[in-house]
Amino acid sequence: MRRILPLILVAVIAFVLGTSGVAARLLRDAHVVAALPGAAVSSPTAATGGAAAPTVNGTTVPATVTVTAATGGGAGPTPIVAASATVAPTKIPAPAAPLSLAQAGPTGATLAAGDWTNGAGATLQVMAPTDVKGLRAEVEARPIGQDFKGTPTGSASVVHGVAAVAAHGLAAGRYHWQARLASDAGAGPWAVFAHGATAFGVQVAAPAAPAVSSPTNPRPTASYATSLVTFRWTTMGDPAGIAGYSYRLDTDPNGVARTHIRTSEPRVSLGGLGTGVYYFHVRALDTAGNWGAGATYPVHVDVTPPALAQHIFSGYYFDPALEQLTLDYKGTKASTVTVGIYDSSGTRIRHIIPTGLKLAGVPQQVAWNGRDDQGRLAPAGSYELAMRATDRLGNTKVVGDWGGFNVTYKRIVISLSQQRLFAYDGPTLFLNRLVTTGNKELPTPTGLFHVMFGKSPFVFHSPWPKGSKFYYADSPVTYALYFKDSGYYIHDSPWRTSYGPGTNSVVGTPGQNYTGTHGCVNVPLNAMSQLYSWATPGTPVQVIQ
Q: What is the pLDDT of residue 509?
């Protein structure tokens, strides 16, 4: 029994020390000592019930075991042999190399080797075993061209197998980095990211504002007649390179392009623009994530064609031998005009090109003399007139397309000196009759007029009141052709029996055989019947002396 107790004591001490080699030696020594009669084994810590031998920096401090052998009987053993054994220190190894290395940009997205980041820097990620406690990662980041010194520039604890070491405040340039794992037991070997190649670049400055131009609108202050505008731009060199551009087109001279990439190309074409002033804003984003200052380019677009503010024709019937067809108008824009005359088959017989730019809002006139492009008189018939206006920018439009213009060679000629009416159809005389015109106080006006309309029958009502020497009672007639405003007609006169020279020569109340008319032209009934059937609205009426 005395031999067994020392063995148990030695085994307990070996277990506490945790070293199999020490336990073996203790057991071996214990066997030797225990073979002696009355032998006993003791340990300073085990004997006093203290803790296991301490460790310092991963090394177990020496432990001493004393063995006592006793002989004889009696109340206690008599020591005859005393021996001690020192346990050798045990070294805990330093951590191994990192499992892997990675890096991320400011947004958390993976930063591939050689990529760029901005002034926010990068996060250097070191992967470590998850079953080892108390690890931390140490990194060393140096500019490319500068050798590693083996001195950490940053560190972070390993959490769930990953250490995220912030690399902030770096100057602009390119960097490489290495990392290692460390613990209380020491530091492990360095691992170099990307085999020592450029790990990442830092670009602090934002790209310069682009220089913008436009091949479709080269002068920013000038107007152009294009609804499709093309913009081009260049950007000064950026070490990180340009990732893309944001642009915006609006009507705000102080507008700014938003911070999202819309194109990777330094050009864009925008269409569907109406007349107005637009502003194109563009800015660049480099691959480091820096948005640059914006540039603005104004464009003036004018795609509004000219139009007519007002227009009026001289008439819809005319005799080219006596007059021209005229169009008086005002345009909404300064422009040149051309006029085409088309016959009833749609063939253009005359192209009129007035010279010079016609100013907006200023009265203008275009005339057709009734002749074709070869100078020949147009045949009698109906014609159309079309006008095209083109402004200084090239905006063009047919501003008018009108029909129903009639060339006629019928005409009525009234000679006041002969008191005679002639009706011609071209060179052919259709009618020749004596007539009576206005007296000296109410003369028939001279000039060129046109038949406006005809009435049959018709009743004249005096515009003068009773008591006036010009007053007359209601006077019915069979035929009346109205040729001039203010009440001038060619009509039959059932109250008259005399026509011709002298019938308008006596001063007195008009309507008598020799006192003339109130300004109208009196025609015998049979002649008036022929004239009324022959003349059409628009037939020229020429009153001459």
A: 77
